[in-house]
Specification:
With 92 residues, the chain is α+β, with helices and mostly antiparallel strands. It contains 2 helices and 6 strands, in the order ββββαββα.
Length: 92
C-alpha cells in the first residue's frame, strides 16, 4: 500500500444506535439514539445494511474517527458507501 491510499480498520470497536421514531421519522424530542449492537465497525455495518432501506435513516454507527473517511458518527448514507468499499476490497 503506498502513501496515497487510506486504510480503514473494519475491526475497530463500534456501536450501532437507533433513534426512537414515530411513523418512520426520528423523534428528536427524545434523549437520543439507543444501543442496538456493541461490536466491530464491520459487524455494525452488516447489521445496519440488513435493516430495511426505508428505516436505515433511523440508525447511526458510533466509532473512533479514522480521518479522512470515517467520522465519529456514521450516517446510513456513509455506511452504505463503506459497505460497497468493504465489499470491493474483499473481492480483490
Amino acid at each position: 500500500m503506498d502513501g496515497n491510499q487510506t486504510r480503514i480498520d473494519f475491526d475497530a470497536p463500534a456501536v450501532l444506535r437507533k433513534w426512537p421514531s414515530y411513523e418512520g421519522e426520528r423523534r428528536t424530542d427524545s434523549t437520543g439514539p439507543y444501543l442496538i449492537v456493541d461490536a466491530t465497525l464491520d459487524q455494525c455495518i452488516r447489521e445496519l445494511m440488513a435493516k430495511h432501506s426505508l428505516a436505515r435513516h433511523l440508525y447511526e454507527i458510533h466509532t473512533e474517527p479514522q480521518p479522512p473517511l470515517i467520522p465519529a458518527v456514521l450516517s446510513a448514507e456513509i455506511v452504505a458507501e463503506l459497505a460497497r468499499l468493504r465489499d470491493m476490497i474483499k473481492a480483490v
